[in-house]
Amino acid sequence: MSEADPQAHGIGAARWIGKRVPRKEDARLLTGRGQYTDDVTLPGTLHVAFARSQIARGNIVSIDTSAALDIPGVHAMMLAKDIARQPLTMMSFFFTPSEVPITPLADGYVQYVGDPLALVIAETRAIAEDAAALIAVEYEELEPVVTIAQAMTGEPIHPDTDSNVSVEMGDDEVPEQLAATLEGAAHLITQTVIHQRISQAPMENRAVLATREGPEELTLYITCQSPHNIARWFSTALGLPEGAIRVIAKDVGGSFGLKNTPWKEECAVVCAAMLFPRPLKWTEDRYEALTASPQAREQEIKLDVAFDDEGRLLGAHSIYDCNNGAYPQGADANIAVHMFMWPAYKMPAYSFLSRGWYTNTNGLAAYRGPWAMESLVRETLLDKAARKIGIDPIELRRRNLVYLSDQPSTSSMGIPVDDITPGECLDKLIQHFDVPAFRREQAEARQQGRYLGLGIAAYIEPTGSAGSMAPMTGELAQVRIEPTGKVTATMSTHSQGHGTATTMAQCIADRLGVRYEDVTVYEGDNTRGGFGPGAAGSRQGVIGGGAAIRASEMLADKVKTLAAHLYNASVESVSIEEGMVHVAGAPEMSRPIGELANIAYGEPHRLPPEFEAGLEVQFRYQPPPMTMTSAAHACVVEVDAETGFVKILRWIASEDCGTVINPAVVEGQVAGGLAQAIGMVLLEDMPYDARGNPTAATFKDYLLPAITDVPVFEYVHANTPSKTIGGMRGVGEGGAIIGPPTLVNAIADALSPFGEIEELVLPLTPARILDVIEQRDVSGTRAHRHGTAVEVAQMADVPAPDPTSGQVPPVDAVVLPGGVHPAQDATIAGDWNMVLKTPMGPQAMKAHFDVEGGALSGYLEAPEGRQDFSGGTWSDGNAKFNLAVEKPMKITLKYDLQLAGDAITGKCKMGMFGTAKVSGERS
Amino acid sequence: MSDHSISMTINGRRQTGTVEARTSLGDFLRMDAGYTGVHLGCEHGVCGACTVVVDGRAVRSCLVLAVQADGSEVTTVEGLADPEGTLHPVQQAMRDSHGLQCGFCTPGVVMTFAALTAEDCKPTEDELIAAMSGHICRCTGYQGIRKAAKILVEGGAA
Prior knowledge:
- The structure holds two protein chains of two kinds.
- Chain A is of the alpha+beta class.
- In chain A, the strands form eight sheets. An eight-stranded antiparallel β-barrel of chain A has the order 30-31-32-33-34-35-36-37.
- Chain A is globular, with a radius of gyration of 29 Å.
- The model of chain B has no long low-confidence stretch (mean pLDDT 95).
- Chain B contains five helices and five strands.
- Chain B has two domains: 3-77, Ubiquitin-like (UB roll); 89-154, [2Fe-2S]-binding domain (DNA polymerase, domain 1).
- By secondary structure, chain B is of the alpha+beta class.
- At the A-B interface, helix 1 and helix 18 of A face helix 2, helix 3, helix 4 and helix 5 of B.
- Chain A: Its EC number is 1.2.7.4.
């Protein structure tokens, strides 16, 4: 990114914002003086290791710890019943309690290979591991449910559940009008994507050092995405006052979504430390990290899109399924996949069915761009459509993208579309890449038996989310000029490699008028500064940057007020440059900022009336609910037709990142995401065998991209400032979202002389690429996926839910035990305990209904308050009513409920959030 | 488990200790000698984060036993910069080219570069990139590491 690009600077005559300054973090990290969790040892620290389940599903018959306890150096052994003496409620990322019972250590039964079932405390990690290996467990093994297909038909893995569905959103059937559109379209294109399971694989594995300091205090050193978030989570989970918990995470070796939420092992260590009188440390090894940490992706989607004869979008429907594992960090049907499937495109109608499934595998956690499937399936489908319709893929996008001239508009799911530039990014990209020249080169190469391909993709990304989900708040900046004249700031941001101590210092130096070298930013400790959720959802540059900018401007005003008073000048005549305070027209009055700071702190009699002593300001920035980032990328590959190997020759990113605080940091985020995209498309895979054993246990099995797999990335700037303070847009996740379809499209283009990648199964290993080149099942993928007749039938129509699998049957099919239809004269009137299954977890509420003839009124009451409604209808056991709500945003909830005896089942249409299940019992 | 007395020079200072035969050099450097800049990323020899220089050669300290390094001269990332704090040319090249984000893989990257560019060694850029294929970085997409390699071969600023 060129510093000369005026659009790289969003605000005024920026001096530090937009500069590629060296990072504050690097001096300590380059000299080995960083402080990662395992680097910290407290006096008396003992070490923890876990004994883990060797089977995917079964009941624990007995656990024999005697041999383990005999090892010299072993201090204690804890099982679920021991840990339970310290109660802890496991919660999702949204602070909602888990829907299924979940305990830090397996209690009576195990649900995945690697499920921790005993915790050993010993003098050293090696001794703890020796002891853990000697714990003998006898199981009553049960048949595991491993795949999504098995989850659909298998018995529920969790007690007291009626199916393996963890969450379900959307429509069981395509709405009538849309079905007609799909059926009658000139072109109906289908794309199926089978996304493999991914290990986030940060270089620093999970680790925690927990020490109880007396009966009322707990200190944690923990590798995480926000010390504030961890403190809040444990405070709620343990029922301790938040002030009693100190969380320190100075340096974190990457996270990518994994360390959002503490999970079973961290919780077990914390409970143990509450019960045991020594500091306890657990550092995960890579074998544990790969086989027993939460994982990500493993999704399947089938998308049908109707086009008219000119390639214009008419309508679309998708069916999405996601393997949640046994204990997801939030049961997830990934509603964001559908919310962001089409807002960048002129898509008149879209419906979906989206489901998460419990299986006997590791639980689902976030990974960079958790909703990235929308871009992958949409952009690869568009290229497939271009080939099938016979239209250029760039032209196909241009006809359908939402350009600035089309805005503001609203997506078919009700998302406001404003301030997005995917079309403009695409146009800029094409200016920098000569497509006709490439097509000529491609044609010549094919003559020589070389297969080049060009992939292009466009997308938008919601960033800087705040105010719509419990953990997603604004960010706080506390900035002070110390009496020495140096500037320190305490931020609610947190870096796992993001370099926020650098970028926030740039914002402060820029707006305060001091040297970047004179600004120090503190973070990484929840006792410093206010709450912030840290790095989640590409938010820190946008929101933390806005907070730092505004706080610095407020502080500059304070300095100017003081200077004007001291020098008998007007406030307007005072300026601050390079740490010097100047008065216009009076150069002899120029003073170092530290001189004013000395007065502000130490000479109260010299301050203006009402002037608060000191030079300190704090500002919490509450930005718009989200800020959109747009991009278009191009990638050129060569596929070796003999071996199926892919070589990436060129990659160009055209990005609208808004104001760029530090080009090197922004490029670093984009490049890192793209490298992870290359890993997802070509290399990384976390497979499970039929018994539920994870089979990638080392970095020799789980292949991460190396330097030789990743090309040099080129950047084209298409930046337009956003509407936030400072004008930034988030860039943390984008590379991992736009990268996969860009690369897949390039490979598919290269392979087009041989045929289509009919079903996209990731990763595209050389063998899978040979499947297309040789038009046979070289990789065995087809045999594996569609091997038996039964499976073929399921594949052909994955959406059809098995009527015996515990799905809620269609309303008109409700039959009560004994073959009785719902009683016509039964009434819904009265009080009910209801549960609405929202995308953020189940929400319990009380309902009261009044019936008068066919008219229905009443109220729903949740902890946040009570809402009355009227104007509903009641007939034939069916209740319909609408409720307008303000949170998480203004939407009208449309309830459609069916009475069956003393139970209510039904659905609630929630605007852009799709349709959620509702259930209720009389209270 | 048998205990062994060992002695080695680490970053120019003599370090003695008693270790089990199974103790890795990486664990010894971190836990006994206190050089926590030695990062253990995989403990099975793939990621390269734990790379240190033993008798002039870059080795993975997770795959070397502490007893094997008895009598050796070991340099860790803490021993590269001069005592006043001036960065080693490799560290400076990495800083100038924004070669790191989270910094966990960085000590290993730095030590491999340092070993291959020490004294009279004149590696080509391709040789440095080939050596870097033995280091996994999950954050940067290797863009800055490539630039650092170029700087180390060509000299000069980024």
